[in-house]
């Protein structure tokens, strides 16, 4: 259970433990029974932990004593210090926790239900996007004479050509790359337990074949697809590549390729979607390929308007 919850029963915030054992157990169950995604669990654990620390610092004796005024004051203070999306995410976490406590009859009302978060509307995502030539420059700059080079090119190529989230890519097993109708396909387990399957672009197909055969892992069907490199050996291990390592790798590759844009793991998803739409793809198809529930989410990755904006800026000829 220690891996599932952000704190142990003996390490609970004092405002929770002050409410008694029943409240404490219900609090822990929120992070185990209610939240299954580990990334969401970490984010909500951090958000709720900070709120409860604020409550303790402001004299709130117990979690059952939290009132709408406390939540409103916290969100107001947070909005002044952090971004609007952060404040809204923290408020969502607090609401969800108290909904759970209401259902468990620990508290009678949800003190966050009536609190409004800051106004925030997003029409364009903030994820840095590479120009197609930059993406090609990055891929071509990777030395594929080594196992690590073959791995890195395959991982970046997978995120570009299949619009895969880095978490889904790193969670793949070798068996998730398979042949169907004489074409290579990939199977991705996306957020919310959604399984998503896509045929490979011919470049991605070449990258994956070179990686699997060149590193000798094609027959290890149950093993992780993307793996760490052993110290001193420079060969693949059987340990899955952590997300932080993938981010560090991308930073190194970008610097080596002379890419000036500050990129991250999500950059390649946005880059692939934008390139697809630029070449006549439809928003509806892009949403299906990215496994988005709504085209509104896909639109956040559509950065075609950036070129229009740059062209218009250059009209200011002074």
From TrEMBL:
UniProt keyword Iron, yes or no: no
Keywords: DNA integration, DNA recombination, DNA-binding
PROSITE patterns documented for this protein: CB, TYR_RECOMBINASE
Pfam family, one: Phage_integrase
UniProt domain Core-binding (CB): residue ranges: 18-102
InterPro entries: CB, DNA_brk_join_enz, Integrase-like_cat_sf, Integrase_catalytic, Integrase_recombinase_N, Integrase_SAM-like_N, Tyrosine_recombinase_XerCD
Highest taxon listed in the record's lineage: Bacteria
GO molecular function: DNA binding
Signal peptide (UniProt feature, chain positions): none
Occurrences of domain Tyr recombinase (ranges): 125-315
Keyword set includes Phosphoprotein: no
GO biological process: DNA integration; DNA recombination
Protein family (similarity comment): Belongs to the 'phage' integrase family.
Protein name, per record: Tyrosine-type recombinase/integrase
Protein source organism: Jiella avicenniae
């Amino acid at each position: 259970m220690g891996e599932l919850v952000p704190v142990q029963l003996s390490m609970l915030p004092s405002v929770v433990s002050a409410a008694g054992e029943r409240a404490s157990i219900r609090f822990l169950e929120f992070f185990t029974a209610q939240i299954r995604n580990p990334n969401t669990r970490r984010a909500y654990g951090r958000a709720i932990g900070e709120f409860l620390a604020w409550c303790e610092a402001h004299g709130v004796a117990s979690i059952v004593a939290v009132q709408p005024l406390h939540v409103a004051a916290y969100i107001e203070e947070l909005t002044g210090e952090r971004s609007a999306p952060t404040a809204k995410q923290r408020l969502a976490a607090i609401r969800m926790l108290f909904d759970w406590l209401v259902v468990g009859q620990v508290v009678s009302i949800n003190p966050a239900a009536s609190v409004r978060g800051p106004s925030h509307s997003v029409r364009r995502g903030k994820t840095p996007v590479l120009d197609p030539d930059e993406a090609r420059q990055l891929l071509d700059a990777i030395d594929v004479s080594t196992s690590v080079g073959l791995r890195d090119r395959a991982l970046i190529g997978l995120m570009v050509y299949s619009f895969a989230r880095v978490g889904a890519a790193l969670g793949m097993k070798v068996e998730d790359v398979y042949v169907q109708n004489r074409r290579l396909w990939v199977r991705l387990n996306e957020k919310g337990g959604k399984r998503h399957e896509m045929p490979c672009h011919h470049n991605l197909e070449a990258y994956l074949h070179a990686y699997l055969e060149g590193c000798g892992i094609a027959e290890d069907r149950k093993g992780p697809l993307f793996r760490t490199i052993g110290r001193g050996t420079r060969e693949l291990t059987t340990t899955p590549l952590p997300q932080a390592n993938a981010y560090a790798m991308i930073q190194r590759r970008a610097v080596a390729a002379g890419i000036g844009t500050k990129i991250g793991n999500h950059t390649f998803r946005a880059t692939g979607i934008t390139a697809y739409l630029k070449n006549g793809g439809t928003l509806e198809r892009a949403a299906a390929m990215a496994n988005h529930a709504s085209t509104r989410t896909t639109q956040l990755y559509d950065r075609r308007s950036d070129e229009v904006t740059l062209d218009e800026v250059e009209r200011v000829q002074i």
